[in-house]
Amino acid sequence: MAKNEVSTLKKGLRVLELVKNHQGITLRDVMDEHDLSKSTAFRLLTTLEEMGYIYKSHTQYFINHKMFCESFEKRSPMDWTSLRSIYQAANNLQMSTYIGKVDGTDLVMTQILHAPFQKSADTEIGNRSKLHQSALGKVILANLAEEPLESLLEKMSLERATKNTFQDSQLFRYHLKAIREDGFAFDDEERIVGIRCIAVPVFRNQEVIAALAIAAPAEQISRSNIKQIVSKLNTGSKAITKEIETLVNIH
User: Fold this and answer.
1) Which of 73, 140, 158, 196 is deepest in the core (most CB within 10 A)?
2) Cis omega before residue 148 (within 30°)?
3) Rounded alpha-carbon distances, angstroms, from residue 24 to 71, 135, 165, 238
4) Eight-state DSSP code of residue 39
5) Which residues, in sequence order, are CB contacts of 129 under 8 Å at separation 6+?
6) pLDDT (tens digit, 9 = 90+) per residue, 46-76?
7) Concatenated DSSP letters for 141-164?
8) Nearest Cα to 226, choosing from 181, 196, 194?
9) Per-residue pLDDT tens for 3-27?
10) How many CA atoms lie less than 13 Å away from 251 in the CB half-sphere?
């Protein structure tokens, strides 16, 4: 050991780096990775948690990105990639999984995961489409309050992406009402021929902030499995909201 080296600090920093590099890590993982006793690993993790550098969800520890930037709320859309609950949702769904947000009259992709759901599809993040062309955009629109919804609808031009894209504004309004009642949106090859998409809203403080969706070849999504997919998406959406709240409330 170097003359001025502090062994406990070094262990703590190694544990912090380990948590940073994983999408959720357990006490056992830390013990095994650094050959630590259970009590030592627990004390290090607890100290880092108490100081706000990491946080715990169920049995796993995650890096608290809020400690390394001014505010979770002010981070760029790319930072949706730091939310670990999206990885868990994708693994549960076993289909390409997406998060999208509104930017003007566009839907912007902020996180995309393809099998084996371990890395973000970075080259696709930031891709844009018109809100009315996908399940992601439609489910966000359907859950907006009346005033912002009307403001957006007035600005939107219902451009066709495929022959299935909505172009009748009145019919589209009725469609949004049905989506709000159903709790999910279905995109039947409306943006890309051969691809179907199902999306649910992501809420915070009872306001829609994004949408969570899966997309797959049309033959993989049918009436027989829509209900199951929606249930898994809703579970994922709630987990994302909970993680955001945990990050925002960490002091």
Assistant:
1) 140
2) no
3) 21, 29, 39, 18
4) H
5) 106, 107, 137, 161, 191
6) 999 888 888 887 788 887 766 655 444 444 4
7) HHTS-HHHHHHHHHH-----SSTT
8) 196
9) 555 788 888 898 988 888 776 789 9
10) 0
The tokens describing 71, both together, are 């505010």
User: Which residues are within 8 A (CB) of 247 and not within 5 positions of it... i.e. 6 or more apart?
Assistant: 55, 64, 65, 66, 72
CA distances from 243 to 48, 66, 218 (A): 18, 12, 31
**Helices and strands, number each (H, E), in the chain:** 8, 9
DSSP-based three-state secondary structure for 96: strand
Buried b (16+ CB within 10 A) or exposed e, 65-99: ebeeeeebeeeebeebbbbbbbbbbbbebebbbbb
Residue 245, both tokens: 């709240």
72: β partners: none
Please give the distance of CA 114 from its chain centroid, rounded to a whole number: 13
Count the residues in the chain.
Answer: 251
